[in-house]
Amino acid sequence: MSVRLQPDPFLNELTSMFERTTEKGSVWVTLKHSSEKSKVQRNKMKTSGEKIEFRCLIRATDGKKTISTVVGPKDHQRFQASYATILKSRMTALKKRERKDKRKAADSDKKEDSKARTAASKAVN
């Protein structure tokens, strides 16, 4: 069952979800564009010329508990900044991918080839 929270308590609960799943587990967060009105109501508002205010529905679950919140356009910037801070601080268990720099790899291959040619020419002489 999902619990709808205000944005600040949602962020606090999200932080505690990340803490609970530090050793083992995952947290899934979904964001959805929402107007909280039915399609019929939106169509009536559209035909009458009323402006439809869209919001962002955010849900988070750790598999056991599900929480959600709705963020309006006025609070979106502040919420997004706080959310980004939480994500950056909690994603410490991720492993960096080993990448080969294409130029360095190509240069090292060329150096190895030239060393091999030099050694082969010395062996022939």
TrEMBL record:
GO terms for molecular function: 7S RNA binding; endoplasmic reticulum signal peptide binding. Its main location: cytoplasm. Residues 93-103 have a biased composition (Basic residues). Residues 92-125 are annotated as: Disordered. GO terms for cellular component: signal recognition particle, endoplasmic reticulum targeting. One of its GO terms (biological process) is SRP-dependent cotranslational protein targeting to membrane. It is found in: Cytoplasm. Keywords: Cytoplasm, Ribonucleoprotein, RNA-binding, Signal recognition particle. Pfam families: SRP14. InterPro entries: Signal_recog_particle_SRP14, Signal_recog_particle_SRP9/14. The keyword RNA-binding applies. Residues 104-116 have a biased composition (Basic and acidic residues). Heterodimer with SRP9; binds RNA as heterodimer. Component of a signal recognition particle (SRP) complex that consists of a 7SL RNA molecule of 300 nucleotides and six protein subunits: SRP72, SRP68, SRP54, SRP19, SRP14 and SRP9. Belongs to the SRP14 family. Component of the signal recognition particle (SRP) complex, a ribonucleoprotein complex that mediates the cotranslational targeting of secretory and membrane proteins to the endoplasmic reticulum (ER). SRP9 together with SRP14 and the Alu portion of the SRP RNA, constitutes the elongation arrest domain of SRP. The complex of SRP9 and SRP14 is required for SRP RNA binding. This is Signal recognition particle 14 kDa protein. It comes from Forsythia ovata.
